[in-house]
Amino acid sequence: MSTAASAPPAAELTVGDVVAERQVTFTRDTLVRYAGASGDFNPIHYRDDVAASVDLPGVIAHGMLTMGVAVQPVVDWLGDPARVTDYQVKFTRPVVVDPQSGADVTIAAKVGAVDVEAQTARIDLTVSFDSATVLGKAQVAVDLR
Amino acid sequence: MNPELQGRTLPPTDPYLVGREKVREFAHAVLATNDIHLDVDAARAAGHADLVAPTTFPVVVQEKTLAQLLAEPDAGIDFSRVVHGNQRFTYTRAVVAGDELTAQLTVSSIKTLGPHSMVTADTVITDASGDHVVTAISTLVVRGDE
């Protein structure tokens, strides 16, 4: 590892510490870009008529977009994406993306557990939209060696 | 859904070559800003062979195996009723540009919850040497008639 990306020292972490916070705005452009990059062209992510036909409150973000974006504050805190060893989420609520105002999503990353000897930690993510969480059990295992 | 799917392993996918521009494209799409995803010099300075793919990038390769599963003639999975329930990536090492990845899916569990069924599929992703890179695990919920 280079000096440019030294890991945060495990010994200095305390359970409950907030290590990163971010607010992002998803627009319809964000969804179209993710559809192209991921190959997930399910039209519920870009067509209002299709979303309405399956009783959704509007066009919704790809769950995998939310998952992919939510880990980025942790990656930046770690300094090196290769320090993520495990990442899991449960999709609990859809993020509805308004065609004009988009959707504001907030991400908070907290220390959930630390193993100082192994130099590993579990970072728990709270990801919210419209005052409610959209991911459950969103956990990132990180290697701080 | 057909309960006999449990334990079934599908044939491995054709190798997927991870391209540098694909890594950058995916990084932009998930609003990733770390240089190690975008700048080859930064990636190499951090000890990586090439650009490191974003954490959730393996879904691009995994998706090919989920498509195989949905296309199994006896699966009985109605795609229009499928909702993504859970997702997990368990890494041995990070994916880097230049990797040639092969993915193979095994159905690890089938459960029924009232009118709904849930299928959990483990996709093991290996490199050109056959070494494990990452396992991508999805639980798909197939909504039944309420």
Q: What would your notes on this structure say?
A:
The complex is a heterodimer of chains A (145) and B (146). Chain A has 145 residues and is of the alpha+beta class. Chain A has one domain: Hotdog Thioesterase (Thiol Ester Dehydrase, Chain A). Chain A has 4 helices and 6 strands; from the N terminus they run E-H-H-H-H-E-E-E-E-E. In chain A, strands 1, 2, 3, 4, 5 and 6 form a 6-stranded antiparallel sheet that branches. Chain A is elongated and about 55 Å long. Chain A starts with 17 loop residues before the first strand and ends with a strand. Chain B has a single domain, classed as Thiol Ester Dehydrase, Chain A (Roll), CATH 3.10.129. Chain B has a 5-stranded antiparallel sheet, covered by helices on one side. In chain B, a hairpin with a 2-residue loop joins strand 3 and strand 4. Chain B starts with 15 loop residues before the first strand and ends with a strand. The interface between A and B is large, with 36 and 37 residues. Strand 2 of chain A pairs antiparallel with strand 2 of chain B.
Secondary structure layout plus pairing:
The complex is a heterodimer of chains A (145) and B (146).
Chain A: E1 18-26, H1 28-38, H2 48-53, H3 63-70, H4 72-78, E2 84-91, E3 103-115, E4 120-129, E5 132-133, E6 135-143
Antiparallel strand pairs in A: 1-3, 2-6, 3-4, 4-5, 4-6
Chain B: E1 16-17, H1 20-29, H2 40-45, H3 59-71, E2 82-91, E3 100-113, E4 116-126, E5 132-142
Antiparallel strand pairs in B: 1-3, 2-5, 3-4, 4-5
